[in-house]
Amino acid sequence: MLPHSADSNSRRDLGVGIGLRPPHYSEVLQQRPKLAWFEAISENYLTFDERGPGAALVSLEKIRADYEIVLHGVSLSIGSVDPISVNYLTHLKQLYDRIQPAWVSDHLCWTGVQDENLHDLLPLPYTEEALNHVCSRIQYVQERLGRRISIENVSSYLTYTHSTLSEWEFLREIAQRTGCGILLDVNNIYVSSINHGFSATEFLNAIPRSAVTQIHLAGHSKSGTLLVDTHDSPVCESVWQLYAETVRRFGSIPTLIEWDAELPTLGRLLQEADHAKKILEETLR
Amino acid sequence: MSDRPPSLSELQHWMKWIITDPRGTENALREAAPTDAQPIHRYQSPPFEALSWISSDSHRERVSRIDVYAEAYFARIHESISLDYPRTREFLGDEYFMKQVASYLKYHPSRTPNLGEVGLAFPDWLGSQAVDPWEEFAADLARLERNRIYAFYAPFGPPSDFSRLATLTESDWASLVLILDPSVFLIQSSFELLESEPRRVAEAQSFVTYRDSTLSPISTSIRTQEHFIFEQSQKGIPLLRIIDQLDEADCGLQEIFETWGNRGVIKTIQLETKK
């Protein structure tokens, strides 16, 4: 197990950043917006056949020359019963060696089984079996990558009747057992709290301060009676309020604005980042 | 099925089946597996009791919660393939394109961590299904669009350098090999692929796709001789041996060097080393 202090880079106060998406590469390189960091999706820079990393990685390297980069994965599938792909981890480590990210993360979920990737962040049952399974895999991944990883809570639309722990108990336990960081997605806490009827405050209060490495903020949408984590709109007022509550509890934690679908202009994203910065400053004042 | 809770493995296998069953959640839960559907492993008879693993008091709510994942599964992959093959989608029309993606996905589920790679076999899938000329055109159009993806993600080649040309001796020419940029991809088709409607041509047309200096993929038609020279050069065949195989004595070599050297398609030259 890596103790929390083993990787000094895993909690650096970089302030507010935004998700780096390919349509914004050239604007970022031309405008050089005033930000300390961007978060990039690791898989966008990985190719798994004989082709090389190509133009996308070159753009990322150019941006890396002036900014801190955090790499956020979507396919680690830490909860899957399939074996962890050594090929995937090898590619990931090569990317980390090349980009030297400030820290790295993925999700508390499973994304596929039987060698098929469903490209979704599927919820786990919160059981002892799943806890042991996830913890052993996080330890393996951290050893293989030679660094601490942060694990993000996901939005979910269903829960399982045989869960014996709450999501926050499960998350806290894996952080304590493995020394991994927690990427606290405030929008996901809000979405799941509405979908499953739990208290977002209870969730926040259960998370150990020392484990939190980063915060995510994003927009969601409504589908029938459920909220869905669509990343296609601005952060809503309820999530801004929950963010302020999070800052009051955890202090200044690097915060990232995610926006993937209906991607707005870079300027609009920067406005959203400014708003997060304002809340952060006002709450801490 | 017993009352004991499912293992993690049982749960994930059941979830994967219900999310990906082509019949949709409700129908998959209600119907026995069809005996004539292909590929048959995608269809199962429902272990109906497993639905009780999902928290809720009502059947309807359990199904609607699973539906969020089932719908997102197809929508996410459909969107990715649509973005990769915009001209093919426009030509086939949204509805037919969507049906093709759904069929493709049954046989080619994603086995890659990168969502952008899920559709790489889509052009060949279209080709394997093609009966009519317009379907063959769609498959070739998709292959051309796939070359644009390959070009964008190709590794970077050596810097352009033709300084060695000036110092070549006469004997060097026999072993001179053209080095193309790794972003160069070729295709031949019996259709004029740069037009929006299928027009079959008498002789196969050649198209080259490469990444330009702004990192954008460019596709353009080329002469058959150019195609042959590029294709053989990619295999490491010396230029003079390639030219010997051409029908025409004058293939316009000077022009090929100038045009494709300036565009960064031909990057440099090297002398074949004797083995």
Can you characterise this structure?
The complex is a heterodimer of chains A (285) and B (275). Chain A is of the alpha/beta class. Chain A has a single domain, classed as Alpha-Beta Barrel (TIM Barrel), CATH 3.20.20. Helix content of chain A is 40%, strand content 18%. Chain A has helices at 25-31, 54-64, 86-99, 128-145, 167-178, 186-196, 200-206, 237-250, 266-284, and strands at 16-19, 37-41, 68-72, 104-107, 110-113, 116-122, 150-152, 181-185, 212-217, 221-223, 226-228, 255-257. In chain A, the strands form 3 sheets. Chain A has an 8-stranded parallel barrel, surrounded by 5 helices. In chain A, strands 5-6 form a two-stranded antiparallel sheet. In chain A, strand 2, helix 2 and strand 3 form a beta-alpha-beta unit. In chain A, helix 1 packs parallel to helix 2 (54-64) and helix 8 (237-250) crosses helix 9. The longest helix of chain B has 26 residues, at 59-84. With 275 residues, chain B is an alpha+beta fold. Chain B has helices spanning 8-20, 25-30, 59-84, 86-92, 94-107, 122-129, 133-153, 224-234, 239-245, 253-262, and strands at 176-180, 185-191, 200-211, 217-222, 266-271. Chain B has 2 domains: 8-129, no CATH class; 154-271, Alpha-Beta Complex (Outer Surface Protein A, domain 3), CATH 3.90.930.50. Chain B has a 3-stranded antiparallel β-sheet, sandwiched between helices. At the A-B interface, helix 2, strand 5, strand 6 and helix 4 of A face helix 1, helix 3 and helix 7 of B.
